[in-house]
């Protein structure tokens, strides 16, 4: 299910032609429903602790809001096909709490442990495929100026980097270091500045909360080594130096000019343009834009990546910043509920001291930073994963 909902951990695309042309995510949603029915037949349902009830109710509140909006849209003349195209993934949120409740703790632990190897090797295979130019999993060449950028790792790769560094797995220090270096290197080679910042923040949280952030000889050597490596990369590699200096220019120019001159400013201007349009009427402000998919949406936005098929700027299916999608599809009411969902999840995990809960908390904090350059934080697979972490974390607490 996770493989389908994440495009095979980014080894494939969202459209498959085997055996017939179909949407891979939609197959994942069908599998989600099958697993839900299968779990319900077991007649065993885990009772969420009282503290976790609010998290479940926030999910149901978000889905109820979306159902009300979809009903209004349908009554106003929007076709049910267009509504389902836009909101089918959001409606799947309703099945997350019962799905996770139906399955045994040991099954979920095995899922977490198995996914580590799947995500780790899938990330390496995709990177090797790109480096060799075989084009098995992706034929697109990612460029930054004259320099090729490596593909961005799966969203789950960051979690398993944090989980590995927390000491959750019974790996030797040598194995833990090798795994961490490989994952960090693949993020760095993608030349994505926000991912580097997110990794630093996530690792700082994990190392601090697990008591590893001490000035031991090993840590002093690690920090010194990373500092030297950073200076060498910025000093000797044109691509790294350009990305670093542009990051500073992005921060400096964001408040001084409207025209987007860097990636971060481009995303902020994209968000500002969409937000201004949403706020043009009270109804849009509260509930977001009309439930129209990309192909049916009129051309009203001019900041964004080009849509070569329609010879215009991509209007609503942007993958640049999650908050633009939240504002456009949920409005301020739905956006507030979503923010409360994230805040409650992070609060629940921040109160626990297990290595799994600490890694989950650091993962949520890191993805708030990454939400300004990616959209995985609103995906169904992301929140299924987070509910698994919450359940396992609170199961450990109850057992203790």
Task: Please outline what is shown here.
With 400 residues, this protein is mostly helical. Helix content is 67%, strand content 3%. The strands form three sheets. The protein has a two-stranded antiparallel sheet. Strands 3-4 form a two-stranded antiparallel ribbon. Strands 5-6 form a two-stranded antiparallel ribbon.
Percentage of residues assigned to helices = 55-70%
Main β-sheet, in a few words?
2 strands, antiparallel
Question: What shape does the CA trace take?
Answer: globular
- Backbone structural class: mainly alpha
How many β-strand stretches?
6
Gap from first CA to last CA: 31 Å
Strand portion: under 5%
Radius of gyration based on Cα positions: 22 Å
Secondary-structure element pattern, one letter each: HHEEHHHHHEEHHHHHHHEEHHH
Assembly annotation: single chain
Low-confidence stretches: 8-13, 16-21, 248-260
What is the arithmetic mean of pLDDT? Answer: 80
The side-by-side strand order for the widest beta sheet comes to 1-2
